[in-house]
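The protein record quoted in full:
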Amino acid sequence: MYYWIVGILAAALVLYFLDREIYFYEATHLGPRVQSWLYDRWAAKYDKGKQESQARDAEMLARPVLDSIKNAPAPLDT
């Protein structure tokens, strides 16, 4: 009668631990083949996100620094 509730709870628990294993431990406990397969599967998505992040670096990193030193006095000549 309540077997479906126990089944759903068991499935949720398995999925929780699988999620922790994949994202927190990077699937190291699942073996090198599984870990390699996961890296190969997500490499393109990671690379795309990294390229987008690097494209914004000038705006998010360099621009605030340049704006903050714009009105700074020139260094002393020695």
